[in-house]
Amino acid sequence: MSNVSNRATEILPHHSYVHSLGAPLACVQGTISKVFPSPDNHHGANHQQFVIKIDKVLKFEGGTENLVGTEVFVAVRFGDDEGLAHEIPGLQAGQPIEAQGEYIPDSTAYPTADNNNPVLPVLHFTHHPVGYVRYDGQYYS
C-alpha cells in the first residue's frame, strides 16, 4: 500500500498562506447531500458544515485522483476576518453548489464529530484568499 499524503504534486501559489496544508487546489461542482444543523466551533472559529457529492471537476491543481462521484466534507469558516463574514444562508440537501479549496483525501483527513464513520475527504480553506463557495446565485469568499 502506498503512503498517500495530502501534499500536492507540486508547489502551488496558495501554499504560502498560513491556513494552507500544502494540498492540491480543487474547484468542484456538485450537489449538497447533507447539511449539518448547527455550526461547529473548531480551533476557535465557527464552521458551517455540509457534504457535497461531486458531479464535475473544474480545476484540480496538484492532484491526480478522479474526484467525480466522490463525496467531500466541507467546513466553511465564518464570523471572523479569516473566513466568511456570515454563514451561507439557506443551504439545503439536493441543491447545486460550486466550491473551491484544498483537497484533503480521506486517508489523511482527521475525524471530527460530524466527519466520521467513515471519514470523508475534506475540501478545506473554502474562503479567501484561496477558495470560495457559489450557492443560490451568490458568491462567498
Structure description:
- The chain is globular.
- It is an all-beta fold.
- The relative contact order is 0.25.
- It contains no helices and 8 strands.
- The protein has a single domain, classed as OB fold (Dihydrolipoamide Acetyltransferase, E2P) (Beta Barrel), CATH 2.40.50.
- A 5-stranded mixed beta barrel has the order 1-3-4-6-5.
- A hairpin with a 2-residue loop joins β2 and β3.
Question: What's the number of extended β-strand segments?
Answer: 8
pLDDT below 50 for ≥5 consecutive residues: which ranges?
A: none
Helix/strand class: mainly beta
Second CATH tier, the architecture:
Beta Barrel
Q: Using only CA atoms, what is the Rg?
A: 14 Å
Q: What is the H-and-E element order?
A: EEEEEEEE
Q: What is the fold named in CATH at topology level?
A: OB fold (Dihydrolipoamide Acetyltransferase, E2P)
Count the DSSP helices: 0
Shape category: globular
What would the average pLDDT be, to the nearest integer?
Answer: 91
Strand content: 35-45%
Number of domains: 1
Question: What is the CATH domain class?
Answer: Mainly Beta
Strand order of the largest sheet: 1-3-4-6-5
C-alpha end-to-end distance: 37 Å
Helix content: under 10%
How would a crystallographer describe the biggest sheet?
5 strands, mixed, barrel
Describe the structure in brief.
It is built from no helices and eight strands. It is mainly beta and 141 residues long.
List its traits.
OB fold (Dihydrolipoamide Acetyltransferase, E2P); 41% strand; 141 residues; five-stranded mixed barrel; mainly beta
